[in-house]
Amino acid sequence: MKRVVTFGEIMLRLAPQDGTRLLQFPCLQATFGGAEANVAVSLANFGMDAAFVSKVPENPIGEAALSQLKGFGVDTSYVLKGGERLGVYYMEKGAGPRPSLCVYDRKNSAVSQAAPGDFDWPAILRGAAAFHFTGITPALSKSCAALCLEAVKAAKKMGVLVCCDLNFRKKLWTKAQAKKAMTELCRYVDVLILNEEDADSVFGIKASASNIQGGKLSAEGYKKVAQELFERFNLKAVAISQRESYSASDNGWSGLYFERGGKMFASKKYDLRIVDRVGGGDAFAAGIIYGVLNKMPAQKTVDFAAAAGALQQTIEGDFSRVSIAEVERLAAGDSSGRVLR
């Protein structure tokens, strides 16, 4: 069984009832989520040995977060205990022309205060096939950026595949800060995963003939984006999730996959009625990692990843709750939604 180690922050997610605004009513649903934790859960659902590395406070909230990850089969044995608090985010889901709203309350969270040297990366990465992080984690603090650099250097030295999802978050840092940090980190990355906006936001690489706000994306434009990323970094592969946002309720969803020196591989496009879009990109990333580690052909890898991301957006919450069989059935073309008896 292939082992994958992910590093990042898990947060408490507080969300109002569907169709209502934040604090419109006094009740909020409490769950957990976070990009790298989401990837670990997806990979565990796919039968892989997935470990999540982080730091959480030694209190009932931190314990509840770890308990939920353990329930999915994720190894949390390398998570440190300490710090003041677990980060929180409030998620108000949009509908039609009203966009979704994410409000962060994560300053001084436990993992943001973790320091270089806190984690024994050679021990954590021993026997791992891949290490995964996102651009969210180095944005949390200077010490988190330094920890990411420690981890990728150790992974590279040990021959562990390094996967990164750019995941630019403008509420956490500026484009200039992201470019500086991610340029250094991407020197050690093998598989770079991004969405339709990230390359522009982080590296200033624009896709031609695309209008993201208008929901129009050009695959050929992203082919040039991938080529420039290959020129800047010693990447083995680039994967791009593509979201055509017709409204907050209805999206087009697909994926692209590029191998260095190879051609572009495109998945089919899914027209989604969104239940919860959070975690869709993380499920896509997990699908790419699963495909690469299991030596799937490039076309099958992107088909699997796009299907995994599509299914995730039909389920409430950050964490994926779909099996390999369900992903493969959708990737093979069964999108009828008929009752399975």
Summarize the structure in words.
- With 341 residues, the chain is α/β, with parallel strands linked by helices.
- The chain is built from eleven helices and 15 strands.
- Strands 1, 4, 9, 10, 11, 12, 13, 14 and 15 form a nine-stranded mixed β-sheet that branches. The protein has a four-stranded mixed β-sheet with strand order 3-2-7-8.
- Helix 1 packs across helix 9, helix 9 packs antiparallel against helix 10 and helix 10 packs across helix 11.
- The longest helix has 16 residues.
- The chain starts with a strand and ends in a 10-residue tail after the last helix.
Give the low-confidence spans.
Answer: none
Question: Rg, please?
Answer: 19 Å
The SSE string, one letter per element, is: EEEHEEHEEEHEHHEHEHHEEEEHHH
Content of β-strand:
15-25%
Tally of DSSP helical segments: 11
Largest sheet, strands/sense/barrel: 9 strands, mixed
Given helix and strand content, the structural type is: alpha/beta
Helicity range: 25-40%
Count the beta strands.
Answer: 15
Average predicted confidence as pLDDT: 95
